[in-house]
Amino acid sequence: MGCGLQRSISLICNGNFVDAFYMYPAIYTLILLFLVVAVNTFKNFKYANKIIIILAILNVSIIIGNFIIKTFIIK
Q: How far is residue 53 from each of residues 10, 26, 49, 56, 65, measured CA to CA in Å?
């Protein structure tokens, strides 16, 4: 299910943002999740736990949905 994450990061580093999304659709929400966790580590803010939970659920949903679509729908 995590297949494509490294290639997606490589595409972002090369400036291919749309291709990175097509390679791994959860890349931008994962980046946002890691940024929120990193900021919360150094400076706690009011709704950090709720934001982290929502982003985690969103990421899991995108990853599983992408896996199902690529495995069973697109052949």
A: 27, 15, 6, 5, 18
